[in-house]
Amino acid sequence: MARRPYVRPMDGWWKRDPFFIRYMAREATSLFVVLYAAILLVGLVRLAQGPAAFDAWVAILRSPASILLHVVLLVVFLYHTLSWFQIMPKTMAPIVIAGRKVPGPAITLLGLGASLAASTALFILVKVLSP
Amino acid sequence: MAEKRTLTIEVTRYDPDRDGGTYVQSWPIEFTDDMSVLQGLQQIKDYQDGSLTFRWSCRMAICGSCGMMIDGKPALACRSFLRDYLPGPLRVEALAHFPIERDLVVDAQDFMTKLASIKPYIIPKQERTLAEGEYRQTPAQLERFEQFSHCINCMLCYAACPQYGLDNKWLGPGVTALLHRYNSDSRDGGQDERMEIVHRADGVWSCTAVGYCSEVCPKAVDPANAVNQNKTKSAVSFFARFLGGK
Predict the structure, then answer these.
(1) CATH number of residue B78's parent domain
(2) Which has the least CB within 10 A, A76, B80, B102, B138?
(3) Nearest alpha carbon to residue A85 among A59, A60, A108
(4) Architecture of domain A15-129 in CATH?
């Protein structure tokens, strides 16, 4: 009776478990982050080219297609933020306060709260500064 | 008298003497609410098909022998209850990402070799004679590694790690957790040699933070945390070289 270990194929592994699908979705959101960084970078280049170029870029941003894209991006970024802070407790050294380890869900909530606060602060700042 | 119910267990089987890879065979079993999946398999083996092959020992989630894919998820058969899989059928398969020897038994040699490679024991900073007494430790020093010492080598985390499944050169979650357990021990002096393993491409850097290893761990070891803490350590040590550090 000879040994003949059988190695199972890994094809389509990420469809095997909902956890893997959520992981792949998290990784895929980074591509949307790159896309938005490119949009902002183009804006910066257009700004350097003068007021007319910048106004043209802003006009494109105000088009219905662009607004739809931004809505999609917003949803994707919300998931990106959520998944980022969900994995955060697993990626850091333990925080010990008064001799007790801060539990993972508390770190996740703290991170989500901080990003909400930062986004709100930025939104208010832009509203105050815009003419 | 406990009420008996029926559940069908489908097992992905493998026979090395038979060509064509794995095949599925199912058996209906009668069970009571207190019966584990392991007991279900034992019932099949004892009364229906003696050739069904699986590993088990303690029946109480401490030996780490009965890890398998239960309804597609890595779990200990002794710690999973048949009542939770109604109405069934319940699918049982050998632990993912390991070669199957027969039925639900996998070849664990790769894990064993890696486990030995990280020297999973205390390498004393300074040898003490018996007369000098024991190596003492404060509760705070124990707290730094205790959770990682709870690993029972059940390999569920390996079955949860797609990176290990795709390339098994990677050291993997469980062994890294144990590496971290010894490196974090105040009595240990083996950090430098273990960190050489951490720094390698097949050390912690093969991890892409899927995080499922920590979800399936039956002992709340959180191997993903051990791996990612060592990514930080590895990165710090890489950059510290330029500042004249170690």
Answers:
(1) 3.10.20.30
(2) B138
(3) A108
(4) Up-down Bundle (1.20)
Domain with B164, as residue range(s), is 109-243
By CB atoms closer than 10 A (0-12, 13-18, 19+), residue A10 is middle
Of B104, B89, B95, whose CA–CA distance to B9 is shortest? B89
pLDDT tens per residue across span B132-175: 988 889 998 998 899 999 999 999 999 999 999 999 999 999 99
Domain count, chain B: 2
Name the E strands within A1-131: 96-97, 100-101
pLDDT tens per residue, range B32-75: 999 999 999 999 999 999 999 999 999 999 999 999 999 999 99
Closest chain A CA to residue B231: A91
Question: Which bin fits A99, alpha (ψ -120 to 50), beta or left (φ > 0)?
Answer: left
Cα dihedral across residues A124, A125, A128, A131: positive or negative: negative
User: Among residues B224, B177, B234, which one has the least CA distance to residue B200?
Assistant: B234
Q: ipTM for the complex?
A: 0.91
Name the residue among B55, B51, B52, B57 with its Cα closest to residue B9: B52
What is the per-residue pLDDT for B95?
98
Q: Which of B44, B72, B106 is the last residue of a domain?
A: B106
Structural domain spans, chain A: 15-129
Structure tokens belonging to residue A101: 């380890």
Q: Of B110, B124, B181, B190, whose CA–CA distance to B152 is shortest?
A: B181
pLDDT digit string, tens, across residues A95-126 = 888 878 889 999 999 999 999 999 999 999 99
Q: Which residues of B touch A94 (CB under 8 A)?
A: 225
Residue B183 contacts A where some CB pair is shorter than 8 Å: no
pLDDT at B242: 83
The pLDDT assigned to B173 comes to 97
pTM (whole model) above 0.95 = no
Residues B47 and B79 in one domain: yes
Residue among A2, A6, A90 whose CB faces B99 most closely: A6
Nearest CA in chain A to B18: A4
- Distance from chain centroid for Cα B32: 28
CB B28 within 8 A of CB B56: no
Angle, nearest 10°, between helix axes B191-199 and B173-183? 150
Residue A7 forms contact with B (CB below 8 Å): yes
